[in-house]
Specification:
With 509 residues, this protein is α+β, with helices and mostly antiparallel strands. The chain folds into 3 domains: 38 residues, no CATH class; 85 residues, Immunoglobulin-like (Sandwich), CATH 2.60.40; 352 residues, Purple Acid Phosphatase, chain A, domain 2 (4-Layer Sandwich), CATH 3.60.21. The chain has 10 helices and 23 strands. Strands 14-15-16-17-19-18-20 form a 7-stranded mixed β-sheet. The structure holds fe (ii) ion. The site of fe (ii) ion has 6 residues, from loops.
């Protein structure tokens, strides 16, 4: 490929933007230049969307890739090895794809050893994909420590996905839990905040199957996103923006009548999701569970499409959720109850979309937010109370939550709730200056006595490390998601979660 005159200036910019390739000195710069040249070539490569793995069990894992620009059915082969150089192939096979699946290919690699790191790659004709690394879950009777990275809310236009890139660098993460808003459905310019050069395609709100596929393809070209997928398995569940803002079973705030039938939009959004994400096909309802040995049962909820009724209205100025407002179907509620009560693991961990704990926002001197967020569990009080009533008898429960774009640590009887900040999507920092945003967090902390930790201004992710003795949460922030200057993780916050006490987070009183 000929190198244009602007190549090296572009290259410098790419190096600075690409989190996992930080230039720190001249030698490293030129080494990295070679890697970026490879990445540039990759952009023209049929495997330009990278590789991914997900939904790990102790003996199997999903492997994923996509081919660009194919016009008919194609066969790929795949290889899985315990060595990064593929000296010996542990297992291999072939998988079909075609334009009807937008070139995406997904296979379940089986017969794997528990708690083991594997490397994988795909071949198509003479082309080979980037190498991915994945890890199976521990054996059912193992008590191995487990570390989760928890992410949500990555709006392409709102910033660079540096948080994903930081996760890619961490060798101590066992699995990434993605709690949704993996894509956003909006037309260009609707991010609330926009960085130059990151513009949504297609150039309108996505509604059709082709629209959703095009948007996923754009997100999968992001090098930070690719790096995260290539480095760790991901357990993913959608939130609302994979369909449309504030979606529920029969509609969405951001779905209008002139955009066609909601049921049709929902169906194509889910089709594209299952094509582009490394999730097992058999769980079409989304909710499902993963066992990490005797250490934790990860129970993934689906609170958007399965049974959610429209959020209660607050038009009358009174917040009055009704008993008939549900977030889950009866089937899911029964499944969840059974899972919680039958679990023998050291921890029960819920993967959840919207904030579970009560959160009074009324202290904020702004009309921008309501006193409570009716789209969160605050709008579905009976459903929350019924579930919360179970927690003391099945403690310790750790709820992992996305959606709010902010970091929160709540405690309640028998549970803690740990909310991950957004990778990029806007929070208080984009609407107010940093001091005001910091003060808003302080006001919220004063007002909400169940709130142990709050940060409403930074972006990044959460890790939770589970051992028999203690579970430790750490919120990790990226300095500036909007800058193409070299980034760094600016600061860290730690909270220790004690597993066997009633109040699980360190008390402030
Ligand atoms: Fe979001």
């Amino acid at each position: 490929m000929p190198i244009s005159s602007g190549f090296y200036s572009d290259l410098t910019a790419d190096l600075q933007k690409c989190c996992f390739l930080r230039p720190v000195n001249a030698t490293r710069f030129f080494l990295l230049a070679a890697l970026i040249s490879g990445a540039r070539l990759l952009a023209q490569h049929p495997f330009a969307f990278g590789v991914a793995s997900g939904d790990p069990y102790s003996e199997s894992v999903v492997l994923w890739t996509a081919l660009e620009g194919i016009s008919g059915p194609e066969t790929l082969t795949w290889e899985c090895s315990q060595d990064a150089d593929f000296t010996s192939i542990f297992t291999s096979g072939s998988v079909q794809t075609d334009p009807e699946h937008s070139g995406t290919a997904k296979v379940v690699a089986r017969g794997l050893e528990a708690g083991t790191t594997y490397y994988y790659r795909f071949w198509w004709r003479e082309h080979v994909s980037p190498i991915g690394r994945t890890k199976t879950a521990p054996a059912p009777n193992a008590m191995d420590p487990v570390k989760l990275a928890v992410v949500s809310c990555a709006h392409y236009e709102a910033g660079y996905f540096y948080g994903y890139g930081e996760i890619a660098q961490r060798s101590d993460v066992d699995v990434v839990v993605h709690l949704g808003d993996y894509i956003y459905e909006y037309a260009p310019g609707k991010a609330g905040w926009k960085v130059p050069g990151r513009v949504h395609v297609p150039d309108h709100e996505i509604v059709s199957l082709n629209d959703y596929r095009t948007r996923y393809a754009q997100y999968h070209r992001d090098l930070n996103l690719q790096a995260m997928h290539a480095s760790h398995p991901v357990i993913a569940i959608w939130d609302d923006h994979e369909i449309a803002n504030n979606s529920y079973t029969t509609g969405a705030d951001n779905h209008q009548d002139d955009e066609g039938a909601y049921s049709q939009r929902r169906a194509v959004a889910m089709q594209a999701y299952y094509e582009w994400m490394p999730v097992r096909e058999e769980h079409s309802e989304g909710y499902r569970a993963f066992r990490y040995g005797q250490m934790l049962d990860l129970i993934l909820l689906e609170t958007r499409l399965d049974g959610r009724t429209e959020a209660p209205r607050t038009d009358a100025g009174r917040f009055a959720p009704l008993a008939e407002h549900h977030l889950m179907s009866e089937n899911q509620r029964n499944w969840l109850t059974e899972r919680l009560q039958s679990s023998s693991a050291a921890y029960r961990v819920l993967g959840n979309q919207t904030i579970f704990s009560p959160l009074d926002l009324g202290v904020l001197p702004t009309k921008r937010v309501k006193d409570h967020n009716p789209d969160a569990w605050d709008g579905y009080l009976e459903e929350r109370e019924n579930l919360a009533r179970l927690f003391p008898s099945v403690a310790p429960v750790v709820i992992l939550t996305g959606d709010s774009h902010c970091s929160w640590g709540f405690e309640g009887p028998g549970y803690v709730e740990l909310c991950t900040p957004s990778i990029t999507s806007t929070n208080f920092d984009e609407y107010a200056n940093p001091l005001v945003a910091r003060f808003a967090g302080f006001l919220l902390w004063l007002r909400n006595r169940n709130l142990e930790y709050v940060n409403v201004r930074d972006h990044g992710f959460l890790t939770v490390a589970f051992s028999q003795e203690v579970a430790q949460a750490e919120w990790i922030y990226v300095q500036d998601i909007k800058s193409d200057e070299p980034w760094r993780v600016s600061h860290r916050r730690r909270r220790i979660v004690h597993p066997w006490t009633k109040n699980l987070l360190t008390k402030r009183r």
